[in-house]
Amino acid sequence: MTLHPRIKAALMILMTAVLFAVLFRQIPFGKVMAVLRGADLGQLTLALLLTVLLPLFAAIRWRLILQLLGYSISLRTAFDLIMAAWPVSSITPSKSGDLIKAYYLKDRVPVGLTIGTVLVERAVDVLVLLLFSVAGAALFGWRQILWISGGLFCAGTLGLILLVTTGDRWPLPAKLRPKISDLLQAFKVLASHPAALILVVVYTVVKWFVSIFQTYLCFIALRHPVTLAQTAGALPLAIFVGLFPITLSGMGTRDGALVFLLSAYAPAEVILGVGLLYTLFAYWVPSLAGLPFLRRALPEGRSVLTKTAMEMKQKDLIAED
């Protein structure tokens, strides 16, 4: 049974509210607000400015993957589409806003190939995040998390290798084969260009490190500095927990995990305050900044969707004849 998107969104909002109610019952809301009111505005401003680098590195990486597939778009276009997708991705499960890229570029890049590039980005993001999680678990001596993160990384890597090498031979319906072939093309091309693959991984590592350093600055701003190593160890684990699509933008789950992981190094109200700041800088600030980009993309997106629907209808009529 598939839930309606609105029902899914409502359930995610409800779950987010429930988790925050639990968190604020354990950590008084007043204490968290007091910590935030006493923040160093200079450090917070610096952390805020780093937000610009997140979509920039994402745009550079995505443009590189498209170039490997033989399709060239400007960095400006890549950046604009990344920003346009951000508001939708922040409020929908599984970052559905990324589909805006596919429909916007439909007349220049096949939809299946664009979606393939999005899947490549997600796969690399998750694997790099798992590597950070392995490093964090090793740093803190969390053996169970180390085994889980390491196991997931190995399983994910093996799964991608099998997908690239044997995906074309999977017993799939004939109608799905061309679509799956397009999706796999991005993975195959990247795998056949080791230098480009390394560069994509480097961009991904830098992008995640920006988030880690941003969080480190937030701890300094709240006047309870946690070391960069401790932040680098705990944040990826918390982010990974937040990837499970049960709350809005991972809120609540990510914050609770961060409090649990760093409780020995800072007061709980400080950690929760940092978690709220992370959500603000990594999700809501880019989402608000992305609204003008989304408005510009929507008119063309609507025309593309209409054109696609008409093409599909024509194909159905031809098939009936």
TrEMBL record:
Q: Has the keyword Protein biosynthesis been applied to this entry?
A: no
Alphabetic keyword roster: Cell membrane, Membrane, Transmembrane, Transmembrane helix
Organism equals Eiseniibacteriota bacterium
Q: What is its main location?
A: membrane
Provide one Gene Ontology cellular component. Answer: plasma membrane
Q: Which positions, given as ranges, span the membrane?
A: 6-24, 44-62, 109-139, 145-165, 186-206, 226-246, 258-285
User: What is this protein's record name?
Assistant: Flippase-like domain-containing protein
Instruction: Please give, as recorded in its UniProt entry, the membrane topology of this protein.
Output: Multi-pass membrane protein
Q: Where in the cell is it found?
A: Cell membrane
